[in-house]
Write a structure and sequence with these properties.
Family: Belongs to the methyltransferase superfamily. RlmI family.
Main location: cytoplasm
InterPro entries: PUA, PUA-like_sf, PUA_sf, RlmI-like_PUA, SAM-dep_methyl-trfase, SAM-dependent_MTases_sf
CATH superfamily of the largest domain: Vaccinia Virus protein VP39
Number of strands: 20
Largest sheet: 7 strands, mixed
GO molecular function: methyltransferase activity
Radius of gyration: 23 Å
Distance between the termini: 66 Å
Number of helices: 11
Strand content: 25-35%
Organism: Thalassotalea eurytherma
CATH architecture of the largest domain: 3-Layer(aba) Sandwich
């Protein structure tokens, strides 16, 4: 019989709106002695059943909801159905983009809190980041083996959030190792090399897929500066669409080497693309001193905001790079600027960019917005699922 979590009076409202989190301060009492990750029943102050979820005694998010249906058992069939339904929701987008790399499970947005599952060609990469996900790992992996019998499975549960759940990082193959950790995926006719062992996140930034397409649509005949370029996939789209020149800037030799290989695998080894190993903040200032300008600048920085306490400092960082980038643009130039920080909401990000334009003495017109790709959905009852924001600005 499941342990029971009783909520303080009035704290059931978010659950009635199907939000999947119960915070520690919402808990009134616990009946039973649930272990970390075990499934518990969640009841309101009067004892009315609300949901079932995974208990996490060390996290501020004390319970993450698996189901709002009292008749639903949290068993193997439950997870098998979640995986099958997630794939069905994505089938149209996978076929439309001819994708061989995509996100199958996006945590709470796919009703699987703490679970991220990405597919790269014939390798599945899992991140099991919550106590509940870790507790159910054998069932989840077993379901993946049934649905994708010829695929290799690799775990990248190496994210800091596991510490908040009282979990140690875990990395390694959950099947026999693949012949190589590097695979080639396809998106909208472009090939991309991905190393699931050493690449960022689960191996690659799948969430920027639509933004890469957008960048290509603006790039023809333009001089492009691609900042925080990582493995250069924005540059590949720009070069494939006739950019006059592209400059990739990153601090990692490994990333820039892979950026060149990404050009080569697409037959673009002779495209006018250069790779510069440099800190973006320093290089932008150097270019400003030199009077160097571009027709298009892409700013896709890493996450600047890890906590609410860091928000003010992060806004200063975003404002700084956007201001200098605008000063480096030729009149009518295109700035594509992004934030992947979930704690920085879209309105605040737009304000930061607007303030940057004022300080740069420029006029910025927002002509397009981008967000995370279709396989990273935002559930209507889980607005926190919206984290990746992009603005395309024409600057004069």
């Amino acid at each position: 019989m499941s342990a029971k979590i009783y909520l303080n009076n009035g704290r059931e409202k978010s659950l009635k709106r199907k939000h999947p989190w119960v915070f520690s301060k919402a808990v009134s009492k616990i009946k039973g002695k649930p272990l970390s990750g075990e499934t518990v029943d969640i009841l309101d102050a009067k004892g009315n059943w609300l949901a079932s979820g995974a208990y996490s005694p060390e996290s501020q998010i004390r319970v993450r909801v698996w189901s709002f249906n009292q008749e639903e058992m949290i068993d193997r069939n439950f997870f098998l159905q979640k995986l099958q339904n997630a794939r069905l929701r994505r089938d149209y987008f996978i076929k439309q983009g001819q994708l061989t790399g995509y996100r199958l499970i996006a945590g709470e947005s796919d009703s699987m809190p703490g679970v991220t599952i990405d597919i790269y060609d014939n390798i599945i990469v899992c991140q099991l980041l919550s106590a509940g996900a870790d507790h159910q790992r054998h069932i989840i992996v077993d379901c993946l083996k049934e649905l994708y019998p010829d695929f290799y499975i690799y775990e990248r549960s190496d994210v800091d959030v596991r510490k908040k759940e009282g979990l140690a990082p875990l990395v390694g193959w959950l099947t026999d190792p693949a012949p190589s950790p590097e695979v080639t995926i396809n998106e909208h006719g472009i090939k991309i090399l991905v190393n699931v062992e050493t690449g960022h996140k689960t191996g690659f930034y799948l969430d920027q897929r639509m933004a890469r397409l957008t960048a290509g649509s603006y790039a023809k005949d333009k001089t492009v500066l691609n900042c925080f370029s990582y493995t250069g996939t924005f540059a590949v789209h720009c070069a494939a669409n006739g950019a006059k020149s592209v400059t990739n800037v990153d601090v990692s030799d490994t990333a820039l080497t892979l950026a060149q290989r990404n050009l080569e695998v697409n037959g673009l080894e002779n495209a006018p693309v250069e790779h510069v190993k440099q800190d973006v903040f320093k290089l932008l200032r150097e270019y400003k001193k030199e009077g160097k300008t571009f027709d298009m600048i892409i700013l896709d920085p890493p996450k600047f905001v890890d906590s609410k306490a860091a928000l003010t400092r992060a806004c200063r960082g975003y404002k700084d790079i956007n201001m200098i980038a605008m000063q480096l643009l030729n009149p009518g130039g295109i700035l594509m600027t992004f934030s992947c920080s979930g704690l920085l909401d879209a309105n605040l990000f737009q304000k930061v960019v607007a303030d940057a334009a004022l300080d740069a003495n420029k006029q910025a017109h927002i002509v397009e917005r981008t967000q995370q790709a279709h396989d990273h959905p935002i559930s209507s009852n889980y607005p926190e699922g919206f984290y990746l924001k992009g603005l395309v600005c024409q600057v004069s």
